[in-house]
Amino acid sequence: MAKTLAHLFGVVFLLIGILGFVPAVAPNEMLLNIFHVNAAHNAVHLLTGIVALLAGMAGVGASKTFFKIFGVVYGVVAVLGFVVGDGMLLGLISNNTADTWLHVGIAVVSLIIGFAPSGELTTTAA
């Protein structure tokens, strides 16, 4: 399941990263007229998508590690978003309230996927 979800996250993040550069979809740097994006924000989405796809191709362990790290990173980004509010994160990445709450959701879902039991049976010595 983690591999499949890593592939899904990868495709979605690549798509979002690309759409952020399309003026008709992100007029005035507002993706879907909701999320504030800029070139750096779009680049982060593209990089995240690539890493997610690579993790998914590498296997379950890599996928779970990706989601653990990704969840922590997006959690930190969400906290920064609450601190900064509508503005620039680290002076580079555009942010607004919708972005911040989306990052909270992404962090929570990623941490659940990363730390969920894999469902594989393990044997123990008696």
Record the SSE blueprint.
Elements lengths: L1 H18 L10 E2 L3 E2 L2 H20 L1 H25 L2 E3 L3 E3 L1 H19 L11
Antiparallel strand pairs: 1-2, 3-4
Task: Walk me through the structure.
It contains 4 helices and 4 strands. The chain has 126 residues and is mainly α. It has a two-stranded antiparallel sheet. A two-stranded antiparallel ribbon has the order 3-4. A hairpin with a 3-residue loop joins strand 1 and strand 2 (35-36). Helix 1 runs antiparallel to helix 2 (39-58), helix 1 crosses helix 3 and helix 3 packs antiparallel against helix 4 (97-115). The longest helix has 25 residues, at 60-84.
Short description:
The chain is mainly α and 126 residues long. The chain is built from four helices and four strands, in the order αββααββα.
Query: What spatial form do the alpha-carbon principal axes imply?
Result: globular
- Uncertain segments: none
Helical fraction:
55-70%
What's the average pLDDT? Answer: 92
The succession of helices and strands, N to C, reads HEEHHEEH
The percentage of residues in β strands lies in 5-15%
SS field, number of helical segments: 4
For the largest beta-sheet, the strand count, sense and barrel status come to:
2 strands, antiparallel
Strand order of the largest sheet: 1-2
Q: How big is the Rg?
A: 16 Å
The tally of domains stands at 1
